[in-house]
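Deviations from the work plan: none for this task. Representative record:
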Amino acid sequence: MDMHNSKEKFLEAADVRLEELQLPQDLKRLSYAQCRRLAKEIRSVMVRVVSKTGGHLASNLGAVELTMALHRVFDSPQDKIVWDVGHQCYSHKILTGRLKEFSTLRRENGISGFPKPEESPHDTFISGHSSTSISVACGFAEAMELKGDKHHVIAVIGDGAMTGGLAYEGLNNGGKNKNLIVILNDNNMSISGNVGAVSGYLRSIRDKESYVRMKQGVEKVLVNTPHVGMPVVKVLKNTKDGVKNMLVRQTTLFEQMGFVYLGPVDGHNLQELEEVLRTAKRYEAPVFVHVNTVKGKGYLPAEKNPSKFHGVSKFDIMTGNPEVSGADCFSTVFGKELVRLAREDDRICAITAAMKYGTGLQYFEAEFPERFYDVGIAEQHAVTFGGALACSGMVPVFAVYSTFLQRAYDQLIHDVAISGAHVVLGIDRAGVVGEDGETHHGMFDVPMLTSVPGASIYAPATYGELRLCLQRAIRKDTGLAAVRYPRGSEKDLCFPIDTPNASYTYTHEDGAKMLLVTYGRVYNAVYKAHMTCEKSGYDTSLLKLTKIFPIQKELAEIAAGYQTVIFFEEGMGNGGISTLFGSMLAEHGFAGRYLRVSADHFVKHASIPSILDQLEMSEQAVCRYIYEYGNKN
Amino acid sequence: MDMHNSKEKFLEAADVRLEELQLPQDLKRLSYAQCRRLAKEIRSVMVRVVSKTGGHLASNLGAVELTMALHRVFDSPQDKIVWDVGHQCYSHKILTGRLKEFSTLRRENGISGFPKPEESPHDTFISGHSSTSISVACGFAEAMELKGDKHHVIAVIGDGAMTGGLAYEGLNNGGKNKNLIVILNDNNMSISGNVGAVSGYLRSIRDKESYVRMKQGVEKVLVNTPHVGMPVVKVLKNTKDGVKNMLVRQTTLFEQMGFVYLGPVDGHNLQELEEVLRTAKRYEAPVFVHVNTVKGKGYLPAEKNPSKFHGVSKFDIMTGNPEVSGADCFSTVFGKELVRLAREDDRICAITAAMKYGTGLQYFEAEFPERFYDVGIAEQHAVTFGGALACSGMVPVFAVYSTFLQRAYDQLIHDVAISGAHVVLGIDRAGVVGEDGETHHGMFDVPMLTSVPGASIYAPATYGELRLCLQRAIRKDTGLAAVRYPRGSEKDLCFPIDTPNASYTYTHEDGAKMLLVTYGRVYNAVYKAHMTCEKSGYDTSLLKLTKIFPIQKELAEIAAGYQTVIFFEEGMGNGGISTLFGSMLAEHGFAGRYLRVSADHFVKHASIPSILDQLEMSEQAVCRYIYEYGNKN
């Protein structure tokens, strides 16, 4: 008790520093002034670390006070905080005892840029995809109810994530969970500006400062009058034409979904935040709290240009200039080639799900705004919408990250493939993406698409091939045609790129008894290994696939000429090309040895080269295979 | 001109009959009295045909007047009508020239129970899954705009389908299409009673009769005053605090999404319907029309019990009694076994996405209502919600039709598998489903799940195996565990079922050089063929898989003992067990002949036996394989 007291005194007196605190529990003992200083320190830590490691900056700078308020009002981990998309969780990580580890953010064996239960009990659920938090919170809330646990579940969701249908499914089901609080962290933009009706609607209410104050004022009095207060509050919120309608003239969308609506409040005013959260906590009803925040808050370059600082690589703290060259990458090459093709064909439309810059579609929007569609974070809609455009004679091209395309598997089957609609997919970030980790690697698009009748898949390894494949997919293919390409650039290409090829390249070595098969970026490593091992007398032939699916039948004939065939695939093996190729060999009567090197598990975050080495797809790893299974001349 | 006139007279005078009309164009010339008689005839045709063919009855009976009104006010196919889920399209089929073919409904080579563009230009888009119509309509609307086409696109969506997130993504994006009309066909229930906040919300506004009348009254005057009218109407609908707020005190959710809201109107009053549709047509803005209908309207047994008549088999017209035996089917066996297990384990929860009866979960709800969750048509939410329940120590079991599980591929990966959450799937209607056709066959669940790290899949062929597999999945497995079983019953089982088995059964025949591999229902045909061919001297060994994934390694060893291995798989081959098995054989150095028999295209509607024969999975087809590739002793 004495110790406790003395500590409390210390906390009150001193200019506290993060590293001196037991977190999150000490947070509750700080004064508002101390909290404000701490918020500054947190921002400074985040800017310093992210400038070195890269990561999501703007959204995290905007969520500092909100995170502090949550940990001061609620008792994590008994109260469960669920972060939507997860990339706004940096303050949360720092405030739950991971200050020391924070410098290892997104590094191999370091902490993840997303919530991860294995790191801390305060990270309640894995998240990296958008719009999951309300459904997750519903699950937690129901489980608590079944167990008689009276704690709260708090979902924190951004306005961008509100455009995803899953969020709505969650809201529709969450309206009955008494211990559920949904916090809308409304920074008035998702990644590159928000779209759609909900966004406009939020804008219309985000500036109403009076609503919560009035409401809180009245209700605080009522709630604090025991035995009388609560029932009155219930009447207050259930009677549409009652007292409340006198207080506020308009019900909100969220009230219509069954939630008590509180807000909007200033997301950088700690006192106001805590007040509204305490009110929310007292309700015996699901509550929706609307919080206005400023993306990039506290770091001028990010406040001025939040889109640029949404997800960043390393940058210079003083100038705010990211260390990014203006050089092309697969995304920009894709975007520019699409513009070129669209100049010649006015049926071509471009669709993105809130990833205009990420997918290189900014060029298309600039030149053909009337044929450009940013549908928000709504991959399902993007595909179904594309299916209908195609059935109307347009040629829709949906540019999407591989990992997010997973959201639209049913739509690819039901709204595109059954009718044979000609929809083109530009699948960006195919294969491992590095530091974003398991939720973001593009490992599933190939297995997804091989099961869809009539699909074609290209996996260009160079810019030239990307251009050629995109032309083929748009002009020559029918039905669903996908072009998949990795994150980053083609730099360090070592193999000769004479003529771009959209089918396959077979490099036959006389006397070679081993055939190495692969596609996409990994061909680089395979080619290097082939050259290296040749020097020590191990000859290998190479088969590089560009159109990877359907697999051309003659490839079985080619493979049949070898004693050993090894397939390297950067993606899930099951349902991937390497298993289909294996089955084709068995069906063809192949009598040699077949080996598959592919992923069969979720891959943790690390640099791309490091991951490729773990997956045995680096030059060194391929060499090991050649030495182990090959023959010396 | 004379002919035209005389025909018109005839139409006015006579008690018109469907077969005498040129449809849909003649519809516009009929009087309301004639239309009412026609509506009766349509209902009588539907009841008569569906009583013989089976199909969706209640929803179609409810949509007769709405369909007539649509075809009288709009010009299909220039104006495009998009039917959500599609199973409310029977009147539409009859009214667009398919009266004669209607008796072939859902029969092989007959017309489909869902919209199908290849049948008629009036069927604008394939649909069979829920909540797609608004996104489809957005695509059509945008394409029209790009082409300068001034026609309208009308999406007709049921209140049940409004619980699916895709509908919301569509609404969020549709609020800017001037030529878009969304019609909510609100019968106050989806399949077995509606759930969630939206449903409650709709109930709250569906009885307000005055809204549209008042609004229509005022606006009709305004719209009809050229040059002045329209701008005023625009002010009327854009000014939240203006004239409109005096007319109606509360804005609706759909207005907040950017739509002009008209309704609710009586969906069986043709005149009122046409009036509101004409008003909707005149707006230069997206319009949302709320129509109240009665499911089963006009056929008493269906009005009284709409759930029972949602999707029916044959039934007796006089009594309304479906010709269904009270006998068990895979769904009820699943449901009852789950109840038994839940008695012993209070962690077990059951989740359905609006398919309580279809999946046999009514027993669970009756006994454990507090652990039963019907989330509405929201498969994404169901899986994510289940993931969170599992992370809270519960054992969620999501019972879902195979085809609808496609909606949740990303959630299975992101919200279940990455964390290794123990979620159990009861996958009903796995394999071909017969008369519902391509949108409904369960062909993709196995390829979907094999790509997900850590998943287990069981494919029981008998009730006993289903019980055993469900026990294993719940009690023994960790992570994602799926039990898949076909539509219908185990009747006509011909193979011996001594001891139910949850792994595999290898039936070795001395001297046999051919191994037949399969799983699930197809084992029946394979077993029969094996017995039949044995009599003519063709010996085959049998390998029946029950736990189909991961494939047990020793199976390669077993297969290696044969000259010929044939795998029969009722589902998509790519990514299915038959390709993974093939690749395993290649990796194992199998030197014999491997053949795969599986699906590689979308399968049209027909009876299940007929489809299995087309897919070469009938006894006769398997015999042909044995004779062609086998050896006589």
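The CA atoms of residues 349 and 371 of chain B lie 5 Å apart.
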